[in-house]
C-alpha cells in the first residue's frame, strides 16, 4: 500500500511537471478528429513552420521570465526587425541578417540597462519600449504595408526553401535555438545564475551573482530571438505590415505559461516551452480547419488556458510555501 502510494505521488509529480505533454496529445487528437489529413507530413511541416516565429520569440521570453523579468516589447520589435531585414535585404543578405539581429540585441540591452541602472520596473520599461517601437514602425512604413522594390531571392529562401522535402529553415532554426537555449540554461554558469536570480534576487546577490548583468543578458537574448523571428516573418511573407506582431508578446507569454514557466520567475524548462508553443500553434491550426466557431474564440480559449495554468501554478507555490513554513516551525 505504501509502495502504491509512493508510485501514485510520483505519477502525479510527473504529470504536474509535464502536463503540457498531455495537453499536446489532446490537441493532436482533436486536430485529427476535425481533419483526418492533419497527421500528413505536409500539414505537420506547415504547422511547424507557422509556429516557428512564436516559438522562437517564446524561447527568449522564457529566459527573461525565468530571470524574474518580462518583455512586453517583443511584438513591436518583431515587426521592426522584420521591416529592417527586408529593407536591408535589397542591398545585402548578410547586412539584413546581421543588422536585424544586432538591432534586436541592442534593444534588449537598452531594456536591461533601463531596468537595472535606472531602477524602472520591467513592466513600465518594456511597455514604453513597445509603444515607441510600434510608433517607429508606423513612421518608417508611413502606415502602409512595406514591400521592397527589389526582392532578394536569397533572403526569400530563408523561410520558403524546402530541404529534403518537408524540412525548411524556420523549422531547423527553431529546433537548433531551442536546443542551444536549453543547454545554455542547464549547463552554463550564466544559465544557473538566471534561475537563481529569478528564484530570489537578494539571495542570488548574497551568493555573488551579478544580477544586473544577468538581467541585461536575459533581455539581450530575448531581443536576439525576436530578431530571428522578424527575419523569418519577412522572408516568409515578402512584405511587412505595420501591424505585424500585434499581440505577439501575449502569445509568447502564453506559450511560456502553458509550457510550465512560472511568472514569478526561477522555474521552467525550455523543452516544455517548445511544447507550449506547439499547443498554441495547434490551437490556431484547429480553428483554421473547423467552421463551427468564429476564430475570435481562439483568443478566448488561449486566455482561459493561460489563466487556468497560472491559477494552478499559484496554488502549487502556496502549498510549497506552507510546507516550508511548517518544516521551519518543526
Structure write-up:
This protein is mainly α and about 325 residues long. It has 14 helices and 2 strands, in the order αααααααββααααααα. A two-stranded antiparallel ribbon has the order 1-2. A hairpin with a 3-residue loop joins strand 1 and strand 2. The protein starts with a helix and ends with a helix. About 40% of the residues are buried. The model has no long low-confidence stretch (mean pLDDT about 85).
Secondary structure topology:
Elements: H1 2-17, H2 19-34, H3 41-66, H4 74-88, H5 93-117, H6 122-141, H7 153-160, E1 162-163, E2 167-168, H8 169-187, H9 189-199, H10 201-206, H11 211-237, H12 248-258, H13 270-289, H14 297-329
Antiparallel strand pairs: 1-2
Helix pairs in contact: 2-13, 3-8, 3-9, 3-11, 3-12, 3-13, 4-5, 4-6, 4-11, 5-6, 5-11, 7-11, 8-9, 9-11, 12-13, 12-14
